[in-house]
Design a protein that fits this description.
Length: 511
């Protein structure tokens, strides 16, 4: 059992708070967050519920730093389908799948840099991105368009470009989900995924983008709640000493911050509980505990703090390991503080507040370049009068969430006022669904919008029936483009960000 020296109890409690990255509810920091920052809490995580505008976000982060100027402010801002910064309207940037399709690393670097610049402008200095997962399983329910693609080398080079672009803006990248979440058919928000491949495949496929990110200097790496029996048959990566310490630290030589994925996700919480899970994660080699997507209250912070302290006192967690984890958090906070200072130097930004060479429209440029169009058998006539937009929607995964609007209806309405729209789900049988679309559309042209139609048979059936009735229908696929093109015009956007919808709307109208 560890023996605590005089004064160590206070240091121990402070270290336990330092390794936590909790969330909170509200658009300004609650008193309990400010109080715990004063006691040692070194990081907070922000989600869509915390953000209404760039100005509000800047005020929020300024209030946090008024308490202590080295607080790490983290966010889950991938761009594309996963956005917190623009949760109410959709992202100004396409996601990884679109960038990987274009396969221009300078474009990816520029997109990441502009995203980083906007985050830094709002006081955010740690981004839980990019996803370096190789999406080798097209039926993956949680990665999909969040990945640069199914090709390992492509994923690696774009991960590097993203890390470099983001960190050049002074925002620390957090490459995820180590050691690779692409070859799963289970969402770790709901259960524990398992990847049954051999060591050779893991090293050649899953690990290659992470090696590249480490070589590029990624300041943080996020662990995945996945079981890889070839590496550890008993514990998921987040809780595995073999994976976090043996593989990531020792074999791959990574010395930056290791952050866990959300500990309240069912892959951990339903099996280990968040308290034991957090202790096991730190013991395994993690440095920071991400919690707050679902549990966002002071009680959670105190439970985890006390669990870590008690584990040290009982000898279940070496005090040196907790101290080392806390030191790595502080080292990253020091880097981000220096980066903020450099950005504030004369010449670092123009009078308009944009960094030299920044391109505020780079996201739309990228989205336009990612569009792929297939014309049907008959000559296509652009839509010139207000159409009817039928969106076929499956339940969004938790990472994407259901707060952010997606599709092309709003963008088409901006170009063609009077555009009408409806959303259809699998709770209605195909004949009734299609009948409703036809009645609602009347004599308007129909634009059918889908995501991942290859994964949803009901969606494919509805589209087939709709095209049989109205062959002049335009089809817009905003997810993985795996199904055969269909419709008078088939538009693949490779993501559902707002700018992807804008790019599609321009094609629909002949722009």
């Amino acid at each position: 059992m560890t023996t605590l020296v005089r004064g160590a109890a206070g240091t121990l409690t402070r270290d336990a708070l330092t390794v936590l990255q909790p969330g909170f509810v509200g658009t300004s920091p609650p008193d309990w967050v400010l109080r715990r920052i004063g006691e040692g809490l070194s990081s907070v995580g922000l989600f869509g519920r915390n953000i209404t505008s760039p100005g509000q976000l800047a005020a929020l982060t300024a209030r946090l730093r008024a308490e202590r100027d080295d607080v790490l402010v983290a966010i889950d801002e991938e761009g594309g389908d996963v956005t917190r910064l623009e949760v109410a309207h959709g992202s100004s940037f396409p996601g990884n799948y679109a960038l990987g399709l274009v396969d221009d690393v300078e474009l990816t670097r520029a997109v990441a840099n502009e995203l980083g610049r906007r985050l830094a402008e709002c006081g955010v200095d740690l981004n839980w991105a990019p996803s370096a997962d190789v999406n080798s399983n097209p039926d993956n329910p949680v990665i999909g368009v969040r990945s640069f693609g199914a090709d390992t080398a492509l994923a690696a080079r774009h991960t590097v470009a993203y890390v470099e672009g983001l960190q050049a803006a002074g925002v620390a990248a957090c490459t995820k989900h180590f050691p690779g979440h692409g070859d799963t058919n289970v969402d770790s928000h709901h259960a524990l995924p398992r990847i049954d491949v051999d060591l050779h495949t893991l090293h050649a496929r899953e690990l290659a983008p992470f090696r590249a990110a480490i070589a590029a200097g990624s300041k943080a790496v996020m662990s995945a709640h996945i079981l890889l029996p070839a590496l550890d048959p008993d514990r998921p990566a987040t809780l595995s000493p073999q994976i976090l310490t043996g593989l990531l630290r020792e074999e791959l030589g990574y010395q930056g911050l290791i952050v866990t994925d959300g500990m309240e996700m069912q892959a951990i919480s339903s099996t280990y509980g968040i308290e034991r899970g957090s202790v096991l994660a730190i013991a395994a080699g993690a440095d920071a505990i991400c919690v707050g997507g679902g549990l966002a209250d002071e009680e959670t912070v105190l439970r985890l703090r006390d669990a870590l302290v008690d584990a040290v006192r009982k000898g279940d967690l070496p005090e040196e390991r907790l101290a080392d984890a806390a030191a790595r958090v502080r080292a990253l906070a020091d880097w981000t503080r220096r980066a903020r200072g450099a950005a504030a130097e004369p010449g670092a930004a123009s009078e308009e507040g944009t960094a030299p060479g920044s391109d505020r429209e780079i996201g739309l440029v990228a989205a336009r370049r990612a569009v792929r169009v297939t014309v049907g058998e008959q000559p296509y006539e652009p839509v010139t009068e207000a159409p009817y937009v039928a969106s076929f929607a499956a339940a969004a995964n938790i990472a994407v969430g259901d707060e952010t609007p997606w599709g092309v209806a709003a963008e088409l309405a901006a170009l063609l006022p009077g555009t009408r729209a409806g959303t259809y789900t699998d709770d209605v049988d195909t004949p009734n669904m299609v009948s409703h679309v036809l009645v609602a559309a009347a004599d308007r042209r129909i634009v059918a919008v889908l995501r991942d139609v290859h994964r949803h048979p009901w969606m494919a059936d509805a589209l087939d029936a709709l095209l049989a009735a109205r062959p002049d229908t335009v089809v817009v696929e905003m997810g993985l483009n795996r199904a055969a093109p269909a419709g008078a015009l088939h538009i693949a956007t490779h993501g559902a960000a707002r700018v992807c919808g804008r790019a599609a709307a321009e094609v629909v109208t002949g722009g």
